[in-house]
Amino acid sequence: MKPVCPFVKASRPEDAPPPPSSRKHQKEAGADPASVSPKCPFGYDAPPDSGAISPKCPLGYDSQTFKLGPLSCMICQALLFDCAKCVPCSHVFCKACVLRFKDCPLCGADIEGTEADSNLQSTVDRFIEGHGRIKRSHVENVDKEEVSAKETVIYEDVSLERGAFLVQQAMRAFRAQNVESAKSRLSVCAEDIRDQITRTGSTSELCSQLGAVLGMLGDCCRAIGDAASAVTYFEESVGFLEKLPADDMEITHTLSVSLNKIGDLKYYDGDLQAARSYYDRSLNVRQDAAKDSPDVPSQILDVAVSLAKVADVDRSLGNENNATQGFQEGIKLLESLTLKSEDIGLEQRVR
How many CA atoms within 13 Å lie on the side-chain side of 222? Predict the structure, then answer.
């Protein structure tokens, strides 16, 4: 199953590439393909003949390639968070990142201490606040000589595009174990989506995005040992994901994973009955999905995993017969799997 990022928006008609006939017409008219302006990576392309100017991030941050920029930490490669300046070399990193080093990762100088760089952090915060909020610069007159004099900036809600940017930065920080940075970016993203829901209502797209972000916030809390907050985020994630159609395999998988994560936290906390309840809910979601897609190996594997989780709790609760039955059913499902070369990822999961 190919995952689908909940922040990938459906293509709009105006974003679609011109049909072959249009390109042929341009070629016949003598248009130089190299002179065609590239599409804005944020999707803020101007409609034809509008005189609009597609903005580009002046610092090089891009929602598709996510290259490093001057406000990036060279350790976690995400935007700087809780900036710390090394003494005496003055190189700046995220505080949580650089505290793991005795020598500066950039120049190799001994780190005698660190100082907070509030001015740079303020710049980063302002950059995040403004990033992706300018829709386009627009002029009524398309005369190029008058563009700079008459252009006005139109601000529109583009929180979804900014959301993709923030999530990517958060994922970078989380992979580098800079969890507080990831949590901060995800919190801003969740706030953006909540504001959008307040204005436009709970659409499937927004519920999917918020459910995914809340789940990632739950992962952040779990990583720092805040189980109570993790459960709260996971439960809220489940609440939004349950509003979505059950025929989307990726959303169904995300929902079942969130339920299992709550079950895991309850299990480790010693609340076996609550853990079994969440594991059972996840199992039901996965079994329903498997009925709709019986030939998809990932769905069968998910059911087998959930059967094992429920059976493990049953064993801990002393329900040996139920546990044995659950394990046997899971084993049969795994034995029925026939993995192809493109399913190598699933084969590794089975192991």
Answer: 20
Burial class (CB in 10 A: 0-12, 13-18, 19+), 109: middle
Span 228-286, pLDDT tens digits: 999 999 999 999 999 888 778 888 888 999 999 999 999 999 999 999 999 999 999 99
Q: Is 152 left (phi over 0), alpha (psi -120 to 50) or beta?
A: beta
Cα 191–Cα 195–Cα 199 angle in degrees, nearest 5: 170
Q: How many residues does the chain have?
A: 351
Residue of 177, 250, 161 lying closest to 219 (CA atoms): 177
Helix (H) or strand (E) holding 228: helix 227-241
Mark the ranges of the chain whose per-residue pLDDT is less than 50.
Answer: 1-4, 8-55, 134-150, 152-160, 344, 346-351
Contact 139, 147 (CB under 8 A): yes
Nearest C-alpha neighbor of 215 from the set 169, 172, 183: 183
- Please give the single-letter amino acid code of residue 125: D
Six token digits for residue 118: 């509030």
Do residues 151 and 136 make contact, with C-beta atoms less than 8 angstroms apart?
no
201: left (phi over 0), alpha (psi -120 to 50) or beta: left
Can you say whether residue 132 is alpha, beta or left, with left for phi > 0 and alpha for psi between -120 and 50 degrees? left
151 close to 123: Cβ distance less than 8 angstroms: no
Q: Is the dihedral of CA 175, 180, 185, 188 positive or negative?
A: positive
242-252 confidence digits (pLDDT tens): 988 877 888 88
Taking each helix axis from N to C end, the angle separating 249-268 and 204-223, rounded to the nearest 10 degrees, works out to 30
